[in-house]
Specification:
The protein is of the alpha+beta class. The chain has a single domain, classed as D-tyrosyl-trna(Tyr) Deacylase, Chain: A (3-Layer(bba) Sandwich), CATH 3.50.80.10. It is 33% helix and 10% strand.
């Protein structure tokens, strides 16, 4: 795969990432064993937040976004990815485009963490 923004990714790569997100074992099981249950196993919600800002590199003292997806493609790509997640899981449990008020009210206090998709092999 060539270096470049995500719009050049084949659909099979996106589907692979959807499966990886839904099946990544990052939760405890009933006996307390770590790293044994997935989002699907636990029937949890998935909050998918576009992290376009991760695509910058530092050039001197300034961020360089030349590897980031152009804004006119980013929203379409993100919405398509959300739809793929909904098709592969329970649509009502897939969340995106968070209202900033949710963050202030502490709705994400039980969040496990975030994962950079470019590192999910």
């Amino acid at each position: 795969m060539s270096r470049g923004h995500a719009s050049s990714l084949p659909c099979s790569v996106s589907l692979h990432r959807v499966r990886k997100i839904l099946n990544l074992r990052v939760f405890e099981d009933e006996s307390g064993k770590h790293w044994s249950k997935s989002v699907m196993d636990k029937q949890y919600e998935v909050l998918c937040v576009s992290q376009f800002t991760l695509q910058c590199i530092l050039k001197g003292n300034k961020p360089d976004y030349h590897m980031a997806m152009p804004a006119e493609q980013a929203e379409s790509f993100y919405n398509n990815f959300l739809e793929q997640l909904k098709k592969a899981y329970k649509p009502e449990l897939i969340k995106g485009k968070v209202d900033p008020g949710c963050l202030k009210k502490g709705y994400l206090k039980n969040a496990v963490g975030d994962f950079c998709l470019s590192h999910l092999g």
